[in-house]
Amino acid sequence: NKTIGNIYETEDIFLPRKTGFWKVGMNRVNIDNKLKDVLYAYPLSKEFPEMYKYEDIDEAKESIIKTINYLGNDYISLESFENFPKGKVRLNIFPIDNINSGNPVKISDIIGENGQKAFYESAAREFSSDYKSKNDYLDIKPQEDSFGLTRRNGHWIMKGRINVLEEDRDLYKDFNIKIIPPKELVMYDELSVSWNEVKHRVPEALDVFTSPNEDIALILTHNNILIYTIDQGKLSKEYIRKIKLNDSEAVVMAEWATGKYIYTWEEEFLKNMASVVEE
Fold this sequence. Notes:
Layout: E1 8-9, E2 13-17, E3 20-31, E4 34-43, E5 64-71, E6 75-82, E7 89-95, H1 107-111, H2 113-128, E8 147-152, E9 155-166, E10 169-176, H3 195-201, E11 207-210, E12 216-220, E13 224-231, E14 234-235, E15 241-244, H4 261-271, E16 275-276
Antiparallel strand pairs: 1-16, 2-3, 3-4, 5-6, 6-7, 8-9, 9-10, 11-12, 12-13, 13-14, 13-15
């Protein structure tokens, strides 16, 4: 009803799934001066799995630093830096149930033939327009599992990656995939205010999320999340709450709950060492 209740925070990522609430996070270990990031994902109804403890991690053959770009109910989009900082940078999507399997999904696994077609057509457009590096491509035809999700103007968009070799260095070129992310990846991605309206009200805005019942907007700047109310597609003149962001914090997931599910979220959050964010 356009009022703010408690705002909570907790460690790791709190993920709702059809099987209940999960926690997703990452351990960074140093083995023989090689850093390796190991992801974990497990139901909150169970103990932290033994397989993710430090002493159970295999020896690192190379450094692998990972960044979570997006997390949905069933998939995670990762950027992996091999032999950091000079090695290849991969962009892939993995199923949450096999988060460390090493086998990323192909775009056709999620979207089918239409996704595969959009992927290769988008890559071809990028490749044909880049004559300078044309002869340096490692693979003229990009790998079908080389894609992920990113944010642009208030929406999740699909992005492909082509790895290139320039002056004996592994580099990459990204391209936008001309297809809307399916529900299997992004459950809710609607805006009830225009991007122009957001920038008019908050010129320094970097991103925005709006609620399914079209009454609340969360606008991100470099330093804060600003909460505005919405009335007939227009933002309120002033924000009603400001949440300070720490350095390097970024949004990798947005989930909405309405009705009785609000209290389910709050109950589960409080059971798992959540704390109130003070004004």
